Structures are given as structure tokens and as C-alpha cells.
Amino acid sequence: MIRVAVADAHAPARSGLRMILESAPDVCVLDTFATAESLLAKAPGLRLDVVVMDARQPGTDVLDTAVVSRIVSELGCGPVLITLNDHDAHLFGALAAGARGFLSADTDPHDLLCAVRAVAAGGSWLGPRHTRRLTEEYRRITRLRSEAGPPQPPVEGEAAGRLSEREHEVLALVGEGRTNHEIAERLTLSPLTAKTYVSRIMTKLGARDRVQLALLAVRYRRGTEPVPARSERASLSRMPRAKTSRTRMPAAVGLPAAGQVPPPPP
């Protein structure tokens, strides 16, 4: 029997999810919760297999990655996230925080149950729309790394000490594709402060936009290679700007038979 808990701020949504899940003979909903905090307070004694939840911060469209991380670490299960929108930042933030599934709010009941079973068995589950978005991002990062070329030798003088400790942390998160909101959550900053840090780093490194800044972050990881000097930034500025596909697929759920979450690029 798969032991499940549901967390959603909206009572009708909680009731609907419970009804769908309890329609399966192999799923048992042990409890439902209005907030993540109430779930975390009671769930350790429930010995859960899966948490089905809306992981946004109350009253906002911001994914609460800290809550997802706590659920994964404290409860030892991979939550299937049910969100009322399809923001790409939510998908990547949820997976980075440890979630093993991601579904849209209009998920078909049958596919919701399939997702719960897959996660409970130790697998992962993404709908075709989200699988495609993840694949596109994998290809984009691979292309950026290819354009960056082989690692460059250390740069003396100007590169040393250009960024502060905090700016290095922000730059690393930009290189991971984090949004300003996610950077703020990870570093316990306000979104405005995170945005200010990103703008300041772009000015210091001469990056013309966030894409080039991410490229610099990938190429010059702190601890392995320094930030480039002005001469190197000039050559980078002449590189063609990476294009991100804006093609969207109709909302759908269910993992293709041969589809799995792709591994991160080496």
C-alpha cells in the first residue's frame, strides 16, 4: 500500500485530490494539510511514501524550494508537485530541490495515480510538456558549454578578487539557471537584493545579458578557474547569442514510454 499525504492551501483542491487518490486500491491517503508547516509537523510519524502538494509560497506564484528540500530531507520521500501553473522556473527549481515528479493542475486522474506509483517505486515522472522543456534546457546548456570551448588557463592580476564572496555565490547560481527569486531564497536575500547583485556582477564582468553571464559562470567556475579578464570578455562578447526555443506544447501529462528525466551534462 502506498502511503500518501496531500498538502494544498485550497480545501476543494485537497478534497478532489484525496478522492482521486483513494479511488485506487493500492493508495492510502493518511492525511491532508492546508500548509507545508502543518505537514512537516505531523508527517514524520506517518511513514509516508509520497507527498502530493502545491509547493508555492502562500498567496504567490513563487515556488517554495526550501519547503521541498525540507520534505525530501526530513521525510525521506520524493514529493510529486501539483502546481496551478506551468512556469519553467518551477520545474527546474522543484527538481533541483529534490522533487522526483512534476505535474500540472489539470492532470488527468489516471496519470496522477501513475505518477504516484512511479515515485513510490523509486522512479521519476514528468508530463510530455515538462519532459520536452527539460530536454530543451539540457541541449541549451550543452550548446553553451560547447561555445565556451576548452577551459582557459588562469588569468593573473585583474581577475583576482574582482568579485566578493557573495557575488561568487550569486554567479554560481546564475550558472545553474536560477531565477532572481530562487537566488533570493537560496541565499536568504530579498528578490530586489538578488537582482541588484546580478546587475552588479554583469557590470563587473562586462556581460551584456543574463545568457552571457550564465556562460561566464559555466566557463569560469570558482575554485577551478578565475573570472575572465577584459581581453577575454571582449572575445566572449563577439560570440553569437544563444537562442532559447519558445515553442510550447499543449498541456499534457504522463511520461512517454521511453522517456526519462535526462541526466545533467557532464
Automatic annotation (TrEMBL):
Residues 3-120 form the Response regulatory domain. Transmembrane segments: none annotated. Keywords: DNA-binding, Phosphoprotein, Transcription, Transcription regulation. The keyword Transcription regulation applies. Residues 156-221 form the HTH luxR-type domain. This is Response regulator transcription factor. PROSITE patterns: HTH_LUXR_2, RESPONSE_REGULATORY.
